[in-house]
Amino acid sequence: MDYLWVLVAFLCGFVVKQLGMPPLVGYLLAGFGLHAMGVQPVGSLQALADLGITLMLFTIGLKLNIRALMQKEVWLTSVLHTGVWVVLLAGVLLLAAWLGLSHYFDIPLTAALLVAFALSFSSTVCVVKMLEEASELKTRHGKIAVGILVIQDILAVVFLVASTGKTPSLWAFGLFGLFLIKPLLHRLVSQAGHGELLPLLGFFLALGGSELFTLVNMKGDLGALLVGMLLASHAKSAELYKVLMNFKDLFLIGFFLSIGFTALPSLDMALTALLLTVLLLVKFVLFFALLARFSVSGRSSYLSALALTNYSEFGLIVASLSVNRGWLSEDWLVIIALVMSLSFILSSFIYRRAHHIYALRKDSINRFERAGAHQGFERPKEATVLILGMGRVGKGAYCALEREYGSRVWGVESDAERVAALKAEGFNVVVGDSDDMEFWQKVSTQGIRLVMLALPSQTEMRSTLEMLKLAGYQGKVAAVARYEDERAELLHLGVDVAFNYYSEVGAGFAAESRHLLTGSEPLDVAHQV
Q1: Is the dihedral of CA 419, 434, 361, 476 positive or negative?
Q2: Which of 328, 322, 434, 338 is nearest to 380 (CA)?
Q3: I need a labelling partner for 195 at 20 to 30 A (CA). Which of 156, 370, 415, 434 fits?
Q4: What is the Rg, in whole angstroms, of the alpha carbon atoms belonging to the chain?
């Protein structure tokens, strides 16, 4: 049975990937398909799903700055959105019942409020997955979206405490001691090296944080998140994130499959779910309006709101709890599972075109932002070479070219904190998203002879190339690819030179070391022989 669900998950994920959609859409379909075939989920499936979510929250913590949660556009948007949405959706449900659109809407006010609350949350799994694929967790809109998700998680804890009557034990105050052992945690990471101990330590810390919170009657996932946040400032946090990423993605497949095993819908349930899916537009407008109201730029408001426009897996927890207590019928558990799955599919599909849509509609989007909210761009002065992405590869390319071209070499980086650190080291670097059409219009491509793509995501590189074409860039483009098929795709998209990092790093290593052979006596003897 284990092999069957792995096989079906792979086939469905593979097929939807060929259609240009994220594999997670295939995993959702695989879960419903297996359920329809009468397959029973194996006991390990839910364990894998839970482990995937715990690792995901831990890795979010590794990239999270706690100061970002204190910004009003994060916490106030999250709280206001939840309150306004619950009132609006409850009213819509009662109106739908009065109009006779579906007998499932014929529920008392308290049940309508519960359904509205269950659908107020955005999916942490779905949002983080989309942002990771686009390498946007460190961007302005990525940080806002993740911050809102964290505040929503805190609201979830408050609901669970209020609805179950389970209050945190007195021992919960001892959790503040985690901040006292932060130096010990940092030392553990430093001493773990770079081998198999590092991911094992990551598992230990993620699961340990979850278990600690669970023991004191608190949401375990918050524990994994908090421990990750304690390690965010460590120099090896990025390395730990990378080694855990593949494990996390693999285990999350169990989560997407488990959704399909929740229940199978009838036609009436499917139509009800479809009506609720249409209301995602209201969710988007509400997020966008609140973020714009708090002086977030039009672009960041639009991208954050679009990423958050989905329904959360937490809705299933609320529905399940409500069913067990007799507040909702079991049918609503099926409807919420279905509407959540539909929202995942729509959100993943639309967000892949988010930057293209913004490039075409930016004037319409930006007219809703408040005065002074629009982000200005620092222009690279007299730039001949632009390096997009100032990670290890981009920074290395910058240092190599600066020796010859000096101040005509500039870097572009979306992470404002990294830009500040690089400027302190003397680098010519500006803040900007390479897949932002407005950035290219403000910067102007005149005088730039070479653009180098040192971006971590193939998706981001595709989007950047599209923006360069729309901006009318006429110069040369070079890119770094991780794999040969990605290199071939970049060349097909118009890149002049695509450097395969893994295959050609050996050639570069040899070129840098060749001078050491000059006058090498043992080698000369060998040649004579």
Answers
A1: positive
A2: 434
A3: 415
A4: 25
